[in-house]
């Protein structure tokens, strides 16, 4: 399956050559989950706080589909 992945802020550091304006085109096997994609990209699971798939929040064990657009977000701090 072919996916488009966007990484926010500090998560970008884990994917060499990531270009925020373009995102990342990824090909993974059918039946892959959100968590499986994160592992495939070597993203630290503990750093991922929100995952959006096609504009809707999803969990690590949710299955992905061909053509999905996935965005990973870390925790956001402020004060």
From TrEMBL:
Pfam families: ThiS (PF02597). CDD domains: Ubl_MoaD_like. InterPro entries: Beta-grasp_dom_sf, Mopterin_synth/thiamin_S_b, ThiS/MoaD-like. This is Sulfur carrier protein ThiS. It comes from Desulfovibrio intestinalis.
């Amino acid at each position: 399956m072919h996916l488009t992945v966007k990484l926010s802020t500090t998560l970008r550091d884990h994917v060499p050559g990531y270009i925020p304006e373009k995102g990342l085109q990824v090909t993974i096997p059918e039946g892959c989950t959100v968590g499986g994609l994160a592992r495939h990209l070597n993203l630290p699971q503990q750093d991922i706080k929100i995952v959006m798939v096609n504009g809707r929040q999803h969990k690590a064990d949710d299955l992905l589909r061909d053509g999905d657009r996935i965005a990973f977000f870390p925790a956001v701090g402020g004060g």
